[in-house]
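Reopening closed ticket. The problem is back. First fold of the pair:
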Amino acid sequence: MRGIGLLLAVALLQIASGQEQPYVLGAGDAVSVQVMNVDEFTGKTARIDDSGSIILPMIGRLQAAGLTVAELTTAITGKLTTYVVKPDVAVAIVERRMQPVTVSGAVKTPGVLNVPPGKTLFEVLAMAGGILPDAGYRVRLTRRVSNGEIPVAGAHPDGSGQYSVADISLKGLEEGSSAENIPVMSNDFLSVPRAELIYVIGDVKRTGAFALAEGQTVSVLQAVAMAEGTLKTAAPSKASIKRVAGEDKRVNIPVDLDKIMKEKAPDIKMQAKDILVVPGSAASQGALEKTISTILAIGTGTVIRLY
C-alpha cells in the first residue's frame, strides 16, 4: 500500500531528526529508582503490574503506566517531599517487555501480536499485514485506563469506565498524521471495521466495489459517477439493481438511467450491498451474469476507496 511506504518514510525521518516521542511506560516494564542518601532506595527495582502501578518504599502504590520516565521522576519526587528534604531522584528503565496487542477486523492477519515498545498504530497495522481493500475509514483503539487515557481528540471512557476508546482516521495514518499515529501500549485492542460496499458492474468505465464512508448514502447517478460514467456500448435504459431482500435472497429493481438523467424519473437511493448492473452488448452478457453470480456467492471485485 502506498500509505505504508509513506508513513514508514516519515517515521524514519522523525527518528533521524531526533523527533521520536518519549517512551511511555506500561505494564511489564521494570524501572530502577535511586534516591541520593536514602538507603531504602539503594538498588531498588520495581516492575509495573497489570494495574499500571509500582510499589515503592515510603510511598506505597504509585501509578506509573502512561507516564514517561521524566513524568514518573516528578511524581516520585513530589511524593517523597513529605519525608525527604529536596529529594534527588533518578529513574531509569531496566527492562522493556514485549507488549501483547490485539488486531481484529479488516486486516490481512488478525490476531494477537507481540509488539516491541514504541511501535505506533500504523506500524502495528503493517505488522498485521496491512488493511484490506474493503476496510472502513477508521480504526477503533481500546485501551485500559490503567495505561493512561488515549492522547487523541475525541477519546472517551467506555461504559464500564475501565477502558478508553478512540476512533482514529485511517486516512490520517496513511498520510503520516503524527498527531494520531500514537505509540501502542500493552493490551491495546485495534479494530478495523469493514466498510459498507456497493457494486457497479457492466458497461461502465470503472467497475468494482465502492467503499462507503460511515453513514454515507449514494444515489444511482452518484454510483454511476463513481464508476466514471457509462461506455458507448451501454444500454442505460435496461440497468437494474440487485438488492438483498432477506437471507440469501435478492430482488431485481429495474432502473432506467436514461429517464433518471433526463429527470423524467426519480433518482434511486442505493443501499449497502446493492449491485448496480449496467448491461451492454449481448456478447458481454454471459460474463456479466458470471460476475453477478460471483458477487452474490462470495463478494468480489476491486474495492475502490473514496477519500
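Second fold of the pair, where the issue appears:
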Amino acid sequence: MTPGDNGASAERVVDSSENGASPEGSRLRLGGMALRNGLLIHGPTHWAAAARTPDGAIEVASGPKPSFARGPLGSIPLVRGPLRLAEAFAVVPVARRNLPAARLPVEDSRVVVIGLATAALSSAIRRLGPTTLARETLIATLGILPAATALRDRDLAAYHGVEHKAIGAYERGSLNPADAPKEHERCGSNLVLPLVVLSVAGQIVVERLIERPSPVARALAALGSTSAAVELFAYAERSPDSAVGRMIHGAGHEIQRVLSTREPTEAQLEVGSAALREILRAESGDTSHSGVG
C-alpha cells in the first residue's frame, strides 16, 4: 500500500437498489456528509462514499478513516468534541481523492466567493470598535452564509436528505433509505443554535477580559465555544425531553425542514443505498466486493 492509496478500495456498480434488513446485533454509530452528487458515510473505523457519475452509473469507494479521538483524549469533555469533528473533516479529502467522481459542497465558485466575502466583512466589522452583542451576533450569522449558499443547490439539499434517510433507516433496522424521514436528530443543524449563542458569548468574554484581544485569543475562544456547543449537542441527544434538548432539536429540525434538506428522488436514494451498504461492508472487514454499494 502506498500513501496515496490510503488503504482504500473502489468499484463501479450497476444496481444498488436491493433492499433488506440490516445485520442483527448492535447498530454502528454512523455519521455522514452530503455530496453534490452522492453521499459520504463514516463509521467507527472506516468511511464509504457513493457518487453518481455523469453517465448515470454509481461509483463507490471506502477505506479506513483518520483517528484522532480514540484513547484517553476521546473521553475528555470539551476535548473529545473538536477531535471528533476533526475526524469527520479529515475524512473528506481522503474520500475525494479515492473517489474522483465525487463532488464536494465547496466545489462551487459561489460558495468560495461568499466564504471569502463573509470572512473579509467579519474582519472589517470587528475593526469598527469594541465588541457588542449585536455586532457579534451579526458576525456569527454571517458565518452561516457559505453553508446556506451551498444548500441552495437542490441536489446537495436532496443528498442531505438522503444522508438522513440512509442512516435513519439503518438505525431502524432497514437498508432502504425510503423507510426513514429526511430529518435526523443528530444532524449538524442541531449545532447551529448553541454554536451561534456560545460563539457570541465567547467573543464578548474575551473582549471583556483582554483590552485588545489578539487573533490567537479569539481563536482560542472560538475553539472553546465549539467544544461547549458539541457538549450541548451531545447532552441534547442524551436528554431530548429536557428544555435544552427540545430547544436545540426544535431549532435544528426547522433548519432541516425549511432550508437544508429536500425530499430526494429514487435515483438519489439508490446512491444512498450504495453508500450505506459499502460502509457496512467496510466496517465488517469484508474485503470482497458484493457488486452492491
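Update: turned out to be a display glitch only; the data is intact. The chain has a mean pLDDT of 84. The first helix runs from residue 80 to 98. Please close again.
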